[in-house]
Description:
Layout: H1 3-15, H2 21-33, H3 37-50, H4 55-67, H5 71-88, H6 91-105
Amino acid sequence: MSADTKLQAFLQMLEGGQDGPLLRYSIGLEYLHADRAAEAVPHLRACLDQDPGYSAAYKSLAEAQDRLGETEASRATLESGVATAGDKGDMQAKKEMEVFLRRLDKGKPLRG
């Protein structure tokens, strides 16, 4: 299944009344992978509104914000994500977001 086909299937699910953090995260991630960061942001935010403990969504939201040049928003998202992941014991996500924070401190993009 192509990325565009997956995205369309996820959007149809949402339009059909299904909603939840996993679906919103999946839509956001597909938009992010398609270099459509501005469209990813609202879905990743919706994921976190529905489940503030969804560690992976913080990382993806921060990456989308960084791609949009929203460095301070990206930093705030990562700081919240590090705290949340630490509270949940999700050490891998915590470490990945700490690496992203160090990249921001050096003025580098999160990916690249």
